[in-house]
Amino acid sequence: MLQIAGAAAAAALIGYIILHVFVDGIFQDPFANFFVSLCKGLGFSEFRALWLYQVIFRDNKTLFIMVGLLLLLLVSCYLAMSRFSKYLNQIGTALDRVFNETNEPVELPGELRPMELKLNTIKATLGQRQQDAVQAEQRKNDLVVYLAHDLKTPLTSIIGYLSLLDEAPDMPAEQRARYVDISLEKAYRLEELINEFFEITRFNVQNIVLEKQPVNVSMMLEQLVDEFYPTMRSKSLSCSLSAGDDISVMADADKLARVFDNLLRNAVAYSFPNTSIEVSACVHEGSLQVFFRNKGRPIPAHKLESIFEKFYRVDSSRSTQTGGSGLGLAIAKELVTLHGGSIHAVSNAEYTQFTVQLPL
Question: Exposed, middle or buried by CB within 10 Å (0-12, 13-18, 19+), for 233?
Answer without folding.
Answer: exposed
